[in-house]
């Protein structure tokens, strides 16, 4: 493993007590994701602008018509405000915790304390983007009277400080990440390992519906990571926690890895079955 990858590795202790090794997103990938998101926002803005022009034209109120330009401007500015304010927050507060740009480049937002990603944390990290970038950029791009060269220079320096801020701290955190208690990690798309996706659960392992409803999709992903890592100490610790949670003592001679693989397969089947009926259980806290 290269030194660069090692320096981006972090230990994250989940609420289940599992030590996961995560990789922080590279600065280049994060910048690329942000540029992609800006591109998607620009496309949305262009599409809405064209639709508004068509709509106003159909109503006999073209934007250039006297007395109607203000109405067009109000609607356009309102949409731009909503898009700028809620694009990042809306996507990152969802189950994937990532904007389309982040998803394309294999990134996602996570809570630094290993807990659930809270809406307040997501809101805080994205509200700071207004101060970090959009507000000073509005000064740079503004042609309003009174915005002189000095203010433009200050705005440019302000942007530079915040844009380069992740390069000067160990965890590659934006100012918004510091306030929101978040960081951006790698989350590449992966197929299930053959022994996890294809292996049928042994007849020796039978789990009740209550036992399978003890966990959700988030815990399933954690369990998958544990099985991939194949660390004996972690397998033992997780197996003990699950047995205690579902009230199923270990049988004599029962291997922790075999028990976890069987539970993984049964839990996955249960969650997929619920999804067919429109019932999505994000994690063990959901009902």
TrEMBL record:
<keyword id="KW-0812">Transmembrane</keyword>
<dbReference type="GO" id="GO:0016020">
    <property type="term" value="C:membrane"/>
</dbReference>
<dbReference type="Pfam" id="PF06271">
    <property type="entry name" value="RDD"/>
</dbReference>
<keyword id="KW-0472">Membrane</keyword>
<dbReference type="InterPro" id="IPR010432">
    <property type="entry name" value="RDD"/>
</dbReference>
<protein>
    <submittedName>
        <fullName>Putative RDD family membrane protein YckC</fullName>
    </submittedName>
</protein>
<feature type="domain" description="RDD">
    <location>
        <begin position="26"/>
        <end position="180"/>
    </location>
</feature>
<feature type="transmembrane region" description="Helical">
    <location>
        <begin position="31"/>
        <end position="57"/>
    </location>
</feature>
<feature type="transmembrane region" description="Helical">
    <location>
        <begin position="69"/>
        <end position="87"/>
    </location>
</feature>
<keyword id="KW-1133">Transmembrane helix</keyword>
<feature type="transmembrane region" description="Helical">
    <location>
        <begin position="149"/>
        <end position="168"/>
    </location>
</feature>
